[in-house]
Amino acid sequence: MTRPAPVGEPDLLALRALLRAAGLPDDVGEHRDTLVAVARDGDVVVGGVAVEIHDGHGLLRSLVVDDGFRSMGIGRGLVAAAEAAAGARGLDALTLLTEGAAGYFEPLGYQGVARDAVPGPLQASSEFAGLCPDDATAMTKPL
Questions:
Q1: Low-confidence ranges of the chain (pLDDT < 50)
Q2: N or C: which end of the chain has fewer CB within 10 A?
């Protein structure tokens, strides 16, 4: 059974490996103020998510689930854990960038937003400034 859980250094390394395997940036946890949660099957990390906090604004990123564990609700559980952690930190919304998962996030309450309408501190993040292409879809959700 998988469950969102707080992470230690071994979990962070496993999450980075999952991100690389999925072709996603593996710099999770490098921003100074980042909340990270993982899902485990026993002791094995099978998914994860992060929220970077930039001057009071939350950036949801690095959502990944191992191929063998998809379509089991793990991703939704991780997003819910990220939203709860962000809310507990006093954030009022989460923003994300996606190249192909807008259809996944829409039923979770995320709506498209113009990139230039995203708060400046998020636009200056590595995700907006260079990791994601200019045509990636920006989405946001109030918490």
A1: 1-4
A2: N
CA dist list (Å): 66 to 14, 21, 25, 127: 11, 9, 15, 22
Which of the following CATH numbers is that of domain 4-142: 3.30.70.260, 3.10.50.40, 3.40.630.30, 3.20.130.10? 3.40.630.30
Q: What is the phi/psi pair of residue 32, to 5°?
A: -60, -25
- pTM of the entire structure? 0.89
From residue 47, alpha-carbon distances to 23, 35, 57, 127, 141 in Å are: 14, 14, 24, 20, 22
User: How large a percentage of the chain has pLDDT more than 70?
Assistant: 95
The tokens for 107 are: 């039923």
Is 72 exposed, middle or buried (CB count within 10 Å of its CB: 0-12, 13-18, 19+)?
middle
Cα separation of 16 and 22, whole Å? 10
